[in-house]
Amino acid sequence: MKRLHLILGFLWIIIFLTSCGEKLEKSWEISDFSKPHVFSIKAPKNKKVSTANIYLDGKFTDTIYLSRIPNDSTLKFTNKNLPKDKLMVDFYGGEFKFHLSPSKAKGELRITIEMPYQ
């Protein structure tokens, strides 16, 4: 009987952990780097949000500049140092905006913003 309670408790924890979280996801394809771009995603009302995950994928020449602030070069990437994993940014609700500043880059870039929430 004790073992049954332990198994049921374990199953309840697994079900609870896998059913708690949801996520919003939005993607953009960029091929014109000569003008600024703004990517935004809005957190659901009355939901807990703590991060925004940014995924970058593509092939391009030169350098691209990304930031939370318009026309800023906080994050500089070339095709060689593009992160293979996600960029995690602290975010606690409202509208999340991410900016791509103009550059001389040529090619294509896919930006995906994922916002987990509970």
TrEMBL record:
PROSITE patterns: PROKAR_LIPOPROTEIN. It comes from the Bacteria. This is Lipoprotein.
